[in-house]
Amino acid sequence: MVPSRAVHPAHTKEVLPSNDFLVRTRTQSVSRPNAVDDLYLVGENKPLGYLPIPTIIAAQYKPENVAANLESCGLRTRLCAAGDCSIESGALYVWDYEALGKLLDGNRKVLDDAGWPSEPDAFVQQVIREHVSKSHFPNLYSLIARAFGDGLQ
Predict the structure, then answer these.
(1) CB atoms within 10 A of CB 49
(2) Cα(58)–Cα(132) distance, rounded to whole angstroms?
(3) Bridge partner list, 79
(4) Can you tell me the distance from the alpha carbon of 115 to that of 110, in angstroms, rounded to the nearest whole number?
(5) How far is Cα 149 from Cα 153, in angstroms, rounded to an integer?
(6) Is 10 helix (H, G, I), strand (E, B) or coil?
(7) Rg (alpha carbons) of the chain, rounded to whole number
(8) Contact (CB, 8 A) for 93 and 144
(9) Contacts (Cβ under 8 Å, ≥6 apart) of 104
(10) Which of 11, 71, 95, 153 is the most buried (most CB within 10 A)?
(11) pLDDT tens readout for residues 61-119
(12) How far apart are CA 147 and CA 153, in angstroms?
């Protein structure tokens, strides 16, 4: 699958310019996909993504550099420290504002019924802050899963 906007070094044969924002913490082969690749799939079919900070670091990337690279490709990001989000270790959230807006616009009733915002940035902030119970809000749970691109693979 080709990302709709961002291009990860593992998806190209070009040498990254020395001033590129994506800086590895150590030398690593890019011949195999790693966990960080999931963030580079954010776009029309996967409007929202996140990875825990330890996952990004274990893949030998600096979270702030990954965020800067994704932002330079037109995506929005939020780097949350441990305790600032529902992910205990902290996480990097990435979203495509336009693609997420289209998904939310088509599901306003679901959002209204659950008391959730329909504006993309506010929606992401709500996702960051709380987990949604599948049993209490099955339609909202399903919508959030679609935002994360669940079921695409």
Answers:
(1) 23
(2) 28
(3) 92
(4) 9
(5) 9
(6) helix
(7) 16
(8) no
(9) 111, 118, 119, 120, 123
(10) 95
(11) 999 999 999 999 999 999 999 888 888 899 999 999 999 999 999 999 999 999 999 99
(12) 14
90: Cβ–Cβ under 8 A, 6 or more apart, which residues? 52, 53, 79, 80, 81, 82, 83, 84
46: exposed, middle or buried (Cβ count in 10 Å: 0-12, 13-18, 19+): buried
Q: What is the identity of the amino acid at 65?
A: N
How many whole angstroms separate alpha carbon 91 and alpha carbon 79? 6
Residues shown for the chain: 153
Q: Could you tell me the CA-to-CA distances from 110 to 64, 95, 144 in Å, in that order?
A: 33, 20, 11
Domain ranges of the chain: 9-147
Contact 62, 23 (CB under 8 A): yes
| Joined tokens for residue 105 | 């616009």
Report the distance separating Cα 41 and Cα 48, nearest Å.
9
Phi-psi region for residue 2, left (φ > 0), alpha (ψ -120 to 50) or beta?
beta
- pLDDT reported for residue 56: 95
What the block records as the tokens of 136 is 């209490």
Q: Tokens 């079921």 map to which residue?
A: 151
Give the pair of three-digit tokens for residue 4.
Answer: 């709709």
For residue 139, what are its two tokens? 């339609």
